[in-house]
UniProtKB/TrEMBL annotation:
This is IS6 family transposase. It comes from Pararoseomonas baculiformis. InterPro entries: DDE_dom, IS_Transposase. PANTHER family: BLL1675 PROTEIN. Residues 2-96 form the DDE domain.
Length: 129
């Protein structure tokens, strides 16, 4: 998560990416932010740049986990606070968030009640009325 998405930040991002990859890619897929195109022109002039939301680009597709986590981060003071909460939350998320289409409504309610009861016992939080 970047605090700014300027050309300078994009340059830094591409340099880090190239250092990790240790080779020059044939194609780069990014979202439609203009600073990515500007940084790519400077650092990777011979590489093809695709900016389509349908090319397996997780940042552009709204239902992907990354975007879901970003949406959750909007109410936090900083990215560090959000990351601290979400890293813990992701470990228990699957126990609370059931796959609704796999169970009946009665089983779903019972499982949710049990999960929240366990959560209240572990955290020591009193039940809201």
């Amino acid at each position: 998560m970047q605090s700014r998405r300027s050309t300078q930040a994009a340059n830094r991002f591409f340099r880090k990416l190239l250092k990790v990859l240790q080779y020059i890619p044939r194609v780069i897929v990014t979202d439609k932010l203009k600073s990515y195109a500007a940084a790519k022109r400077d650092i990777l002039p011979g590489v093809e740049h695709r900016q389509s939301r349908y090319l397996n680009n997780r940042a552009e597709v709204s239902h992907q986990p990354t975007r879901r986590r970003e949406r959750q981060m909007q109410r936090f003071k900083s990215a560090r606070h959000a990351q601290r909460f979400l890293s813990t939350h992701s470990r228990i998320h699957n126990h609370i968030q059931l796959r609704r289409h796999h169970v009946t409504a009665t089983e779903y309610r019972a499982a949710r009640d049990a999960a929240f009861r366990t959560w209240r016992d572990v955290t020591g939080v009193a039940r809201a009325v």
